[in-house]
Write a structure and sequence with these properties.
By secondary structure, this protein is α/β, with parallel strands linked by helices. The protein has helices at about 30-45, 70-85, 95-105, 110-120, 140-155; strands spanning about 1-5, 10-20, 20-30, 55-60, 90-95. Strand 1 and strand 2 (about 10-20) form a beta hairpin. It starts with a strand and ends with a helix. The model has no long low-confidence stretch (mean pLDDT about 95).
């Protein structure tokens, strides 16, 4: 089953569609565009016009400190994304600590460690002439891909 994963942000979010061990699509888009895509894609899935797909979203995780407006905005967008999906109760909410633990064996891992673990697991991006399994993944899409991979592995 394909997994659409989102790494929510305040104005833009990273996304990745993982099909088994290959990234089908990834990028960073304005939140409004992702929200509309969720509504459209969810409608097509409900009508049986596209392959079944799971939605996984990185969930905000409290760290014992007061949070600021950016964190609140990210939490609000997470809720909007979940609600826009055709089956909100089926959305997998994945904590960043679970991603780090799954991919790196430690919750203290940093973003470069997570990216390298994904490359080690799925394969290098490659080049335009010879694209690899993670070709085209950049920026916040790496975090979304990590969410997708964790959701896929936890679902097995």
């Amino acid at each position: 089953m394909k997994i659409l994963a989102i790494d929510p942000g305040t104005k833009e979010s990273g996304f990745a569609i993982l099909d088994g061990r290959r990234v089908q699509e990834s990028g960073v888009s304005p939140n409004e565009h992702i929200l509309e895509r969720l509504r459209v894609t969810g409608g097509y899935i409900r009508a049986g016009l596209v392959d079944p797909m799971m939605l996984a979203v990185e969930r905000f995780e409290a760290r014992g400190m007061a949070i600021g407006d950016e964190s609140v905005q990210t939490i609000l967008w997470t809720g909007r994304f979940v609600q826009a999906w055709h089956a909100p109760d089926a959305v997998r909410l994945i904590k960043r600590s679970a991603v780090k633990l799954h991919l790196c064996g430690s919750t203290r891992a940093k973003d470069p460690n997570v990216r390298q673990a994904l490359i080690d697991t799925l394969g290098a991006p490659g080049t335009k002439k010879a694209p690899g399994p993670t070709y085209g993944v950049t920026s916040h899409a790496w975090a979304a891909l990590a969410v997708a991979w964790t959701a896929q592995q936890e679902g097995q």
